[in-house]
Amino acid sequence: MSPGTGAALGMLAATVDAKAVAEIGTGTGVSGIHLLHGMRPDGVLTTVDPDPERQQFARTAFRAAGFAGNRARFIPGRALDVLPRLADGGYDLVFCDGDRTECIDYLAESLRLLRPGGLVCFEGVFADGRTVDSGPQPVEVLRLRELLRAVRESQDLVPSLLPVGDGLLCAVKR
Predict the structure, then answer these.
(1) Predicted confidence band of residue 6 (pLDDT cuts 50, 70, 90)
(2) Which strands, in side-by-side order, build the sheet including 44-49?
(3) Cα separation of 74 and 46, whole Å?
(4) What domains does the chain contain, in order, with CATH numbers?
(5) Is 84 helix (H, G, I), strand (E, B) or coil?
(6) Are 1 and 31 in contact (CB under 8 A)?
(7) Which of 4, 3, 1 is nearest to 23 (CA)?
(8) How far are the Cα atoms of 2, 21, 72, 148 from residue 56, in angstroms, in the given order?
(9) What is the pLDDT of residues 103-153, one digit of tens each?
(10) What is the mean pLDDT of the segment spanning 164-169?
(11) CB 119: neighbour CB atoms within 10 A?
């Protein structure tokens, strides 16, 4: 994640006064730290990742960044298995940085999870410029194109594509 993308995430979390954030793809914790910096002091980040080792690394990074252990809830597992167990309308922001071939499914789950006025964000939607390249593309790029189209055409979302990092697609749920 680029510093610009991280700064944008923190600002967006602050903009929606985020108390509950769901993150798809814990990674090493970089995005989580940016989200936590923007969230309310009593906010909780719920982060989902299939790799428990990455989650342990992120847990350590969160502590090193000064966040109390109760500020993050780590759920190991495949996102599409975990997300259906999370509360409808219970989240202010959903950040998606998981398997790009599942991004359309993440969008559907995000819309269910978000409260009205909540924000969904997808990292890496430029796919190193491949989403606009006219040549043959791998499945993940085709799925990102579907995501961009679905968000643009949705009557339930107010979208914006931020040119930070490798592209940050954001949309507010009406």
Answers:
(1) very high
(2) 72-76, 44-49, 20-24, 91-96, 114-123, 168-173, 157-162
(3) 6
(4) 3-173 (3.40.50.150)
(5) helix
(6) yes
(7) 1
(8) 22, 19, 12, 32
(9) 999 999 999 999 999 999 999 999 988 887 777 889 999 999 999 999 999
(10) 96
(11) 24
For the chain, helix, strand, coil in percent to 5 are: 45, 25, 30
pLDDT at site 132: 78
Please tell me whether the overall predicted TM-score, pTM, comes out greater than 0.90 for this model. Answer: yes
d(Cα 102, Cα 140) in Å, to the nearest integer? Answer: 8
Q: Tell the residue number behind the tokens 């507010």, with chain if given.
A: 172
Within 8 A by CB and 6+ apart from 129, the residues are none
- d(CA 39, CA 4) in angstroms, rounded, equals 17
Query: Dihedral of CA 78/82/88/94: which sign?
Result: negative
Report pLDDT for 1: 87
Handedness of CA 98, 91, 125, 12 (dihedral sign): negative
* Strand-pair category, 44-49 with 72-76: parallel
List phi, psi (to 5°) of 117. Answer: 90, -5
